[in-house]
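Journal club prep — side note

Before the paper discussion, L.F. wants everyone to see what a predicted structure for a comparable chain looks like in token form. Sequence:
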Amino acid sequence: MDVTLLGTGAPAGLPRPHCPCAACASALGPDARTATALLVDGALLLDLTPGAALAAARAGRSLTGVTQVLLSHPHDGPALEVPAGLPQPGRVPDGRELALLTGHRVRAVALDAPGTGYAVTAADGTRLLYLPPGGAPAGVEEGAAETYDMVLLDVVGRPDALARLRAVGSVGPTTDVIAVHLDHDVPPGPELHRRLAAAGARAVPDGTTLTVGAYEDVPDVPRRTLVLGGARSGKSAEAERRLESFPGVVYVATGGTRGGDTEWAARVAAHRERRPGSWRTVETCDLVPLLAEDGPPLLIDCLSLWLTDAMDAVGAWDDAEWAGGGEKALKERVTALTEAVRATRRTVVAVSNEVGSGIVPATASGRRYRDELGRLNAAFAAECEQVLLVVAGQALALRG
């Protein structure tokens, strides 16, 4: 089954008309996108958009063989003009299946938002799933879902939709996940591709023809990632974003509750509001057992607070205790942690502060903490496939 993406953008396109934002200003050439529409084997058109016939011609395709046009979501504005020779667009009721003369079977998938998703099975048995902008499957049960060869959905706007599909097995390790309905939420170009790769997805230019079942382009999601950054750099938001499209994430909070500290409580509340409701929170600094267990992805936030707890435990703030065995005990704890990271089978994203580039602390204990955090970050990074430095909300890849 071949799929030609006549467009890959949001309903308003990219750049949006008359939008002055930086993303729209830089959406030029291959990064410019018209509204998403799919031409399947030249016979099935999913979503009719303005200029569909011209878009097909630019892609080296024709709409003359189209026998069915299906709409996936409500279209704002005036009614679209149907090009001559095309059948009138329609929509399949949720849960119903449509059999085409071409041998394709199309099943309507119920969503949690206005619109309809379409699961298409070709005569050769290959399967794709197409979801409209802002939509995620509703009521899919684990074990009852089929695994698709290709999924096309709003990865940026609804990462939880991809998480749901992964949770029930509809998206597997070899599923080709294509991001469509792309808007100006993420700067186009390298930043978009970086974020999608972290979710195991990719984007292609308008006019691209893909063969369903060809898996060589599926991004390899890093299994261990360290995200570094200064205060309020956006490092935690970056780490959380990397796991939004994965189910059952365990958020490991190493800072505790700090009863009576209203500022800390406000910070914790802000973090919780950002996280998907399906994530589970564990408050602990005992990371080694978690890393040794099998299970869903871990998001550890953060290593700098873990180090504070470890230094408290070994008496690192007292010079005599530090010299009398505290330094050695801390090295043993760091070694145990990094060895656990090396051996873990779980997906891990860890956050840590980068404090070595600022003002030299005025106290000996402050300098000790700065030095030990630098050593911990370096040791942890050595065990990670990807290391990022976040500055002013922008993630710079140091490795991977």
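L.F.'s comment for the group: The mean pLDDT is 91. Keep this in mind when we get to the figures.
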